[in-house]
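It is worth pausing here to work through a concrete case rather than discussing structure prediction in the abstract. The textbook approach is simple: state the sequence, then state the predicted structure, then interpret. We follow exactly that order.
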Amino acid sequence: IPGVEHVYSSSMAGQAAVTLRFYVGEDREKSILNTYNKIYANQNKVPRVVQDWLIRPIEVDDVPIMVLALWSDTPGRYSDFALRRLAEDISTQLQSIPQTSEVNVVGGRPRQVQILLEPESMAAHRTTVADIIGALQISNSLVNIDQWTFNNSSIVLEAGDRFRSAEELANMVVNVIDGVPITLRELAKIVDGPGEATAYTWIDFAPGHPAFHSGNDGYPSVSISVAKQRGSNAVRVANDVHAMMTRLEKEIFPPEIHYEVIRDYGETANQKVNDLTSSLAFAVLTVVIFIGVFLGWRPAIVVGLAVPVCYGVTLALDMALGYTINRVTLFALILSLGLLVDDPITGVDNISRFMKNGKGDIRDRTVAAMAEIRGPLLMSTITIVLAFIPLAFITGMMGPYMAPMSFNVPVSVMTSTLVAFLVTPWLTCLLLKPTSDSPAEQVQSTELSGIYRRILSPLLDDRGKAKTMLWLVLVLFIAACILPTLRLVPLKLL
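Step two, the predicted structure:
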């Protein structure tokens, strides 16, 4: 089958399961169709012992984003059987919420009509188990015979019926002995109630919870899991589920039954996104403040306005190409913040220098300043883009995960270069005016230049020291490469 990466199998008494794992990115519908075609095209090779098979697709969207637990503080009145019946009613309501997928009920005993045979009565009435099974198959059958059209009406002709209550089942005729009909009531005890327990589900609470009681071993519970459809917003679906449960709690919940949210990926995702959004805003504010401290408030405004322009273009392209706002997308924007402000800062700084020391009017100085750094700006952008593009070629599960990184960072950096060449000079002409160096700026420049000169001059004047520095850099580079090779540092993701 094309697109299959791995095949797993597990066998047990009377059944076997085969799992096909497809490559990431394979078309879901085409993969299911290819699987059906391959299986049904080889029916002649299937042994007779195989009676039937089921093909079931399983993917990440089948994982529930919410799990709700129903429990009662009076277990003697509301058992797990009652909790399950209420949970089944609630699951029907939850399935009506848009963009929900599977809604399953886990735990509790389902409703079941049990026929508890009485051997003595069966022997007295000369009836066997086979007679009872045959009577059930015949009596509990509804067959569509035909459809008549008469007097502008359509009449459906049916034969037989299905049991609709335990009382009807008890009155079913099983046998006729000496002209006397024998009903199931005379042969068995009919119990309409909870089925046999195959699993137990309990919930307990930690100290601090209102329902916590020391010495209590917990309460019987029934869980409801809610999954979302592919491409839907987990936060919106989770909020709709909360709103529905709030309404149902008022309308159909008995006072003694409560529900607890034990998993909410919508809340988790919303919290993470909000944290990253606030971190992004804090990062932008920090960058603008630092620029204002070292370059002045006017250059800070120029660079600060460049940030929303770059992000606006990047997010617009994300929307056009189908990328959603998630933790990876926001992390890519935070990562690109330090890169996209480089070009505007360099442009503003060089324009400011030309405003103080250049010649000609303000436009000539701005053009000369940008022309001087045109090459470095372009090369720095190309270098960053080439560094992040390989992330787009990662295969496997990490491929879709890293895709926003390989797209958002290069796009935002390229946009920042365009902003540095187009928007920054225009804003600078409006906000900056030609000035001369102030005494304070001259002192600061002299001090910084002196420190820088003392560090760099020995390397420029002495060829031996320069070679020593290069050899030192090479040794440090090799040492850095050896660290992950010798597993001295963990190598994960990035």
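Step three, interpretation. The chain has a mean pLDDT of 87. The radius of gyration is 37 Å.
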